[in-house]
Amino acid sequence: MFKLVEIRDVVRVDPRFLGKDVKEAIKQSLAESLEGEVDQNVGAILAITDVKEFGEGEIRHGDAGVYFPVVYEALVYKPENNEVTLGEVIEIAEFGAFIRIGAFDALCHISQLMQDRVAYDRKNAIIVGRKTKRKLQEGDVVRCRITGVSMGKTRQRISLTMRQPFLGSLKWIEEEKRKLKEKEKKKK
Which CATH topology does 84-187 take? Predict the structure, then answer.
């Protein structure tokens, strides 16, 4: 889930930023050191949006940087269990599909791809449903549900499912909607 969060921390401002406005120097230092990083508690820090407040700078022995206590606002992405999200298939493997959601790559195990037995076509890097003939390949945009999140300091694991109604490739979802409309027309 994308969120704006307020974070209280101490930031080191590099000496090369010290000729600028203090608030701008702090924001630039935060952006340089934190954007793209993953924090276990807040998730992936995508952008520093604002420096809300800062205190008096402190010079530490042996370091030319200045340390400021700050409260800043950041745009973060942190996946949450049961969240339904869109993603893009970035790799097909024999055991499932890797899907990029937000700032993370997640795995949808082959058993969770669809309500059908599937076959893996190694040559074409696609997964095909045996009865439905639905195909999943790199570049497909999918709707999926997050079923497991493990955020470690060095490694993140995110598990997905697409076996529920109106989950899966957006092409499949459109097909399901068309079939429902046809059923409704027949009833009338």
Answer: OB fold (Dihydrolipoamide Acetyltransferase, E2P) (2.40.50)
Q: Do the beta carbons of residue 1 and residue 79 sit within 8 Å?
A: yes
Is the per-residue pLDDT at 188 higher than 90?
A: no
The residue ranges of every structural domain in the chain are 2-77, 84-187
CA-CA distances (angstroms) from residue 161 to 56, 98, 133, 138, 144?
49, 12, 19, 17, 6
Closest residue by Cα to residue 105 from 152, 155, 143: 155
Top-level CATH class of 2-77? alpha beta
Would you say the pTM of this structure is higher than 0.85?
no
Distance, in Å, from the CA atom of 48 to the CA atom of 35, rounded to the nearest integer, reads: 7
